[in-house]
């Protein structure tokens, strides 16, 4: 193992692993982690690219809410395409690799923080916009403008960058976590700030988002009779609004389930006494959320499902075959019709 005293990384009371040493010492952590993170990285990057292509190519998906969906996909892709592969490198190469490239670990951890802040704030914005859309329709056009949505997205990234810049002032840091064995927020650098970070940027937004969805469900429950009457005259419009709200709620639920254990751990384990297994699996679990959203869209959102199918068929060359098949059916139908007309004559 690498000498702790010469390694400029966080959690100095934990073992520091060199190349392949973590794999040799604790294969029960490394092997499952590499398998799961590899699948998450490939599937998540593929899915987030699919989201961006679907929104760009299908008009029904291009609305003001899609700005936050695109922002969420971009934020998530930073994790699946950059942070996840570097997580695998950390498990295999250990500290040696990051020692050889100065500031690399800080950059990876900073990207992860900025991305996660952008993701949660985008999910929060989707919940608020959906709440306005369903419960206060008259205000929807005022809040949900293209300009407002873009400004909010820029603001999310600005907030994330601001948190990273605080490190330069000695507030918090991003380092190699020796317990989780990856580059991430340094939970031990300033525990007071870690608590503030957890409360202000994780717990408060998640609670507010939960309140928005609770108000939506309460509104739907209180107006069931009216909505049934409305659905008879407008069979799709109101139902689509509620179903899309359910889609975004599931996205929020997935994020919460993934991040709540980590948000609790960094606050509770102020003595760094939790086991390496606990820290490794909890950190890995937190980073799985960016790989799941596209699956949620596909299974719960009819327009995304159609868009994904169209994109995949086009990429696989099936769209042309479909058109040719339809053309053959039309030709056969014309031939049969002509033959019938001759017989009648």
UniProtKB/TrEMBL annotation:
**How does the record classify its membrane topology?**
Multi-pass membrane protein
Matching InterPro entries:
GPCR_Rhodpsn (IPR000276), GPCR_Rhodpsn_7TM (IPR017452)
In its keyword annotation, does this UniProt entry include Membrane?
yes
Which parts of the sequence belong to the G-protein coupled receptors family 1 profile domain?
47-297
Tell me where in or outside the cell this protein is found.
Cell membrane
Keyword list, A-Z? Cell membrane, G-protein coupled receptor, Membrane, Receptor, Transducer, Transmembrane, Transmembrane helix
Give any GO molecular function from the UniProt entry: G protein-coupled receptor activity
Q: Which residues form the signal peptide?
A: none
Q: Where are the transmembrane segments?
A: 29-55, 67-87, 107-129, 149-172, 192-221, 248-268, 280-298
Query: A single GO CC term, please?
Result: plasma membrane
Give a single Pfam family match.
7tm_1
Protein name in the entry? G-protein coupled receptors family 1 profile domain-containing protein
